[in-house]
User: Fold this.
Amino acid sequence: MGSKENVELEDELDLDADLDLDDELEGTELDTDDLDEPSETGALQSSSKRVRMIFSVMASPNRIDILRILNSKGPLTYSELKSLAGFKSKKESGKFAYHLRKLLRQSLVALNKSERRYTITNLGKLVLSLARQIEERSIIESGKMYVRTSHDSIEEFNSHKIIQSLVREGSLPLELAQKITEEVENRIYKYQTAYLTGSLIRELVNSVLLEHGYEEYRHKLARVGLPAFEVQETISNAENLDSGIESLLFNTGQTVFAEYLLTNTLPKDIADSHLSGDLHITRPGLWSLLPDSIFINIKELIEDGIDLKGKALSVSKLTSIKTLSNLSSALSMIISLIAKEASQEVIMDGLVSLLSKYSKNLSELEEKLVNSFIMSSTAFKFNKTPTIVSFTLPLGVEQKIVNVVLSAYKTYVGLTPRPRIGLVINYEKGKITDVSNIIAEIISLGGEIIFAKHSISQNGVTRLKSTGSSTLHLGSLSINLPRLAFESNKDETYFRARLALLMKPALTSMSLRKKNISELVRLGMNPILANNTQYMQRCSTSLVINLVGLRDAVFGILGFNDDKQGCEVLHKVVETSVDIALKKAKELGTDVLVTMTKSDGSGRFISLDEEKYGKNSILKITENETYAEGVVIDASTLADLTIKSPQIVQCNRMAKTLNGGLFTQVKIPNGSKITEIKKNIEKISGLTNSFKLIMRVPLCGNCGMKDQTLSDKCPSCKSSYII
Assistant:
């Protein structure tokens, strides 16, 4: 034990001894106070003494401060409490002990001797509340104005604090800050109110700034948050939230961060572009906090054990993975933990290699995998759509292990209404026919599976081959190509110029996003990622721009036909965007990818464009509820397609031109038989290098029943809520 700890322990021992002495002297201490008072008897006298002693304790600001500290931060050790109370020097040790002794003797503070920690008692909380009420009432009775702050305290109005805030938060020159404060103060006194809040004063300040044309300062000082009505509405509609209190907290929190992003973080032109519908930012509340996708090796995460050190003290440590049970626990923990560190998806390589050590008992391995998948399904999620954790399965390597994973995944999907675990089937070196049957069964159950001959996410975003062990993808930004086409007067050259003009500042803002997220990783806010990347030293980051509605823009608005000439224009647009991306990548010193994939902003684009250009104008382009996303192939046409079919040629050329990936969807009719799904998998695998089969599996939103036969009413619970 160090000398400092020895001193602190001695102080505590002295405190205990003093308490015993105080108990002996308590009656003596009160004798002089009782001389001039009428005699009282028994319990009444004892009660009166007790009240007087409590009031004497309240007379000291130091003791009130100690109660406040324990109420907000307790339980605390002796040294922690002493430091927070402001008694930092050795000379003040005796003074602190005296005040703490008073509180202990009146049972306002209690000591847990086994943990050596102090806590405020219920009586102490009552006294603290009474002290606060007296303080507030005294200010009111004095006729002075007081302010109820956002820090759960009440203070006398002080105009100097407004000046300090204007200078510190708004970066106003001191002279201007004084001028604005003087006007705000005059308005406050004019209203003759005795009751102020911090938010009300801020509103008055912002109003004055706006009246004088200081909008840039007002933005910095604006309060972000939700009106009380919206908070109440969120609570009232809680039945629509599927993650309970978590959803309430995350939804409100993300609303605040989204507002902060659009008013204080993004350049004004990009924020306006999002609001107007020129582009769309997915999940703006998480934009500056989390990457969208992470590519990472699970073998590297697990083999060395799990130890998040001081960043997640409630997470169990697994120092070594030596048994299959250890592996099962570690796997479920990793899935749950890593899902918190990306907003959309985590793609993990190395699972098959990791499991190969445990191939002696395949049935037990499958059982443990099922348990791991099931246990990880309880992890929280940021949005209604959870973060997907996908495992890459390379065909042609350790096929027995691949089969075990597929079988375990099939069981998991059957038990889970909405799976949050997915699979990436890499068929570069293996045969699709070896696994097509079981995968068809999984797809019929609603499993998340994508096929590719390279590393890819569930949304079709490609990982660059030259990257290191871990890669972050920062996307979430989609460009509304039909909007640009509408504004280009059917001039294809001008259309591409407008695209270039929008991409450049958008990528600059995404570079700022990269800086913000990297800083949070370095601070350990993403502990798994931080440890794996050595706090961003072993990690590459890619910025991703998504193009939405290309075919709608070229064929529907610019007026080209879906023929050879029209297809050439499609490719010219893609080539232009990729060229801009590569040039911007050199300027920014980071990889920039261009994709054509799904976007939750596609429906929003159509809605905003209908308002701006009229519904009839949009109906001439498309009858769908969203603009074109990636490439869509109807399963009914697959039988007639070959590698030389114009649709396939165009698809493969587009995929080759896009440096970030093309999302190729094969839409399968609901209720398709497993044999039909199997044929579709085998056929399309010979035509493209990546694809995903899309089939809606009906789900009862009331009881969670999942079945291809569900239509108007659930046969189990009779609910008509089918999703």
Notes: The CA atoms of residues 308 and 527 lie 6 Å apart. Residues 17-40 have pLDDT under 50 and may be disordered. The two ends are 63 Å apart (CA to CA).
